[in-house]
Amino acid sequence: MAHLQMVSDHGPAAGVHRVSLPAPPVDFGSGIGAAVAAAVYTRVGRVHVANLLTTASAQRAYVSLASEVPWQLHFNDGERVYDLTAEQFAALPEASRDSMQEAIYAKAARGFQYLYENYPLSDIYAQQTQNDLYLMRIHEFLNSPRFLQYARQLTGIATIALVDAQATRYGTGHFLTCHDDQVTGKHRVAAYVLSLTPDWHADWGGILNFIDTDGHIAEGFVPRFNALNVFRVPQKHSVSCVAPFAPAGRFSITGWFREA
Fold first, then answer.
1. Alpha carbon of 144 to those of 9, 154, 206: distances in Å?
2. Is 36 within a domain?
3. Quick check: 192 and 228 in contact, CB under 8 A?
4. CA atoms within 13 A on the CB side of 67
5. Strand extents, DSSP E, 134-240
6. What CATH number does the domain containing 176 carry?
7. Mean pLDDT score, 66-84
8. Which domain holds residue 168?
């Protein structure tokens, strides 16, 4: 079994590293319009929209994910959530990492469990401590009047008031087991994944799977570059474990369309 690790092929070991590149304005790309997407969403409760953003803004967002974001290892123990910075993870003895991995995998076999790297985009945006990070422009776009109207038209829910977001990076051994995203008091009406992963193969895992009532996989969305996946809440889904031979991280921005 591979040892627990944080993804090492992208990004700084710690802290925030700024890349001196142009910051193109974030805007809609050439993807299908809300009316076409809504027809699919209404019929099956989920939809895949390619080319959501302009190519320039999607590429710049990928650079930000791959080389600017200070990732933390994100996992749960029942309802308790844990986050380890790169420095904290590096300080753990290998034996402690192995025992932690064994405990996480054992719980994944029995119930709801997740293990991946994240960056709490909405929380950091609210703090205004890293406002020059390009991902903050993505957050602003997702909460702009134009995108909120797009989300309302796509889902048919006129009361969508905000979009929350986290950035995620799945590496070897990372996963998210089956759940339906319904949490009392969160007012989630739909979930989304803005996939920003270039050149991903289905064999590498990290597939967004939708689980039918009979336990079969009804549909799976392979990570794609600059694609938006939206699905109704509640709906059972998971992210399959990333294979040990996957050569790079699976990058996305995820969250929920929420009512006030």
1. 33, 15, 29
2. no
3. yes
4. 8
5. 160-163, 166-170, 175-179, 188-196, 208-211, 217-221, 225-232, 237-239
6. 2.60.120.620
7. 96
8. 50-259
